[in-house]
Design a protein that fits this description.
This protein has 200 residues and is an all-alpha fold. It has 9 helices and no strands. The protein is elongated and about 70 Å long.
Length: 200
């Protein structure tokens, strides 16, 4: 083998290793940034945290949408799907609804990426749209079971539940962040307001 060919061959594994390292550094930086501040964190900041250029993010992931798709499971999707699975495992209809509303509102408060997902901030990210589709399904299930059990106000709809959770996402995204104790108290008010009124 000629010396030039040998040098090129030895460089290829090094380039592949560098590319893999850059990819993992970007993933790690994106997960930390998106979890802490939501999916709209400037890519320049992600690149700086990863020790690469913004162009490297585009080279490796194609831009923000590709990066979101690559890390959304670790950022928030796994936790959302776990909440849905735990909800479906609860037997009592009202306990099921109470758990779901409380858990989702808690996740909205803790993870800004949940808010971006529910507001469909990036509709081109198919994984986010799939999460929203799954959320719509569980909403329908909860309302149907809640009405059938008599635990839920009969006029309350899946659309109403979606709107209430959407409204809380808007508050967290665009207004002054409420204190945690105030936020949790309002969760209790929400649940109290949709529960069926028992005749004395």
């Amino acid at each position: 083998m000629r010396a030039g060919a040998a040098g090129a061959a030895s460089a290829e594994p090094r380039l592949r290793a560098d590319a893999q390292r850059n990819t993992e550094q970007i993933r790690k930086a994106a997960i930390g940034a998106f979890q802490g501040r939501g999916l709209s964190v400037p890519l320049e900041e992600v690149a700086k945290a990863a020790g690469v250029s913004k162009g490297t993010i585009f080279n490796r992931f194609g831009g923000r949408i590709g990066l979101i798709e690559a890390v959304i499971t670790e950022v928030v999707a796994a936790e959302i799907y776990a909440i849905i699975d735990r909800t479906r495992a609860i037997d009592d209809a009202w306990a099921r609804l109470t758990y779901y509303v409380t858990a989702i509102r808690d996740l909205q408060y803790r993870q800004p990426a949940t808010v971006d997902t529910m507001l469909q901030t990036y509709p081109d990210a198919q994984s986010l749209m799939e999460i929203c589709r799954a959320g719509g399904e569980i909403n329908e299930e909860l309302i149907t079971a809640g009405r059938a059990s008599g635990a839920l106000r009969p006029e309350f709809t899946a659309g109403d539940l979606h709107a209430l959770l959407h409204d809380s996402a808007l508050v967290l995204k665009y207004t002054t962040r409420p204190r945690r104790e105030d936020y949790d108290r309002r969760t209790a008010y929400l649940l109290d307001g949709i529960q069926a009124r028992r005749t004395p």
